[in-house]
Automatic annotation (TrEMBL):
This is cysteine-S-conjugate beta-lyase. NCBIfam families: C_S_lyase_PatB. GO terms for molecular function: transaminase activity. Its EC number is 4.4.1.13. Residues 34-372 form the Aminotransferase class I/classII large domain. Belongs to the class-II pyridoxal-phosphate-dependent aminotransferase family. MalY/PatB cystathionine beta-lyase subfamily. Its cofactor is pyridoxal 5'-phosphate. Pfam families: Aminotran_1_2. Keywords: Aminotransferase, Lyase, Pyridoxal phosphate, Transferase. The keyword Secreted does not apply. The lineage of its organism: Bacteria, Pseudomonadati, Pseudomonadota, Gammaproteobacteria, Enterobacterales. InterPro entries: Aminotransferase_I/II_large, C-S_lyase_PatB-like, Class-II_PLP-Dep_Aminotrans, PyrdxlP-dep_Trfase, PyrdxlP-dep_Trfase_major, PyrdxlP-dep_Trfase_small.
Amino acid sequence: MASNFDLYVERRHTDSDKWHKYEGKEIIPLWVADSDFISPPAVIDALQKRVAHGVFGYGYPSPELSDVFIQRMQQLYQWEVKPEWLVFLPGLVCGLNLSVRALTTPEQGTIAPHPIYPPFMKSARLANRNQVSAPIKLQGKRWVLDLEATEQQLSGNEKLLMLCNPHNPGGTIYRRSELLDQLDFAQRHNLIVCSDEIHCDLLLEEGLEHIPFASLSEDASQRSITLMAPSKTFNIAGLGASIAVIPNANLRNRFIEARMGIVPNVDILAYVAATAAYKDGEQWLADQLDYLRGNRDLVMEKINTIPGLKLMPVEATYLAWIDASELPVSNPHAFFEEAGVGLSPGSDFGNPSFVRLNFACHRELLTQALERMANAVANLPTTA
């Protein structure tokens, strides 16, 4: 069955966090990173069959899910993953927090890109760990990690390097040479690496490839935790199924011990959805990527014609990191919210001069939001 990504799905007055935030207001929500697209038919069919069974007791990850994930890693990345390396989690954010708590002591610090997806910063703060902000700099038209500037900030007590590939925000797909530089950095400073790769399937720039950090070498494998999930890819984030790939037995045992009694097992319906998505969702994913490329191109074109706004090319994800530093307003997020467009504030990621726009939505709705943004800027008072 062909998917129609131009189909508008009414999400108001449902249990949608994204849409509930602005319930009763004329504000288009383009903030939190879930899409407005109907999930793959194979996922819906599998869930309906499981619900029809009628019994919802405790579950466990089926060998089938492990098998399809391992096959996927081999097919896409030529990365040989073993079943015992897999730790299933009810979300990726808990994987970030567990990595910090399991793999560092209170005296040890973490290193994370900046700006970055907010839970990276929160995971260190909640665990009372120091965090070095590794700056993301603009190189050409790509946001990349500045390891040289990071090195100058180190105290020698850092133990965990937290990476994000593709990067959120900014959408950068790191090239092999850049990943090897990150590995060299980790080796020189004796760091464990936690790599958030949740957006690895959402590659918009054709001809580019995702390379898992752990697949670089045996050393990279043994010093790393890789976090992946079908949640963003197939719009099943609300079901909560993520995977930590931890080849090193010592790191894996510490990670598992840290979760005991705190992080619950994955919901049985989430297992069903994840298995169906990985098994039978590829054509749906290909169609979604085509649609997202069209939306990405529309956002690039429109944003870069609005005075005071700049957007660099988005290589991956469905998230546009918009530079509003030249806009003559004190709070870009509040300004556009007042204009009827709900974006993510850049301050959440570490830079209040930016806003993040989620373009995984019906194109007509996206067009309307972009028009509201352009009109709001056009109506700003001019100075003599």
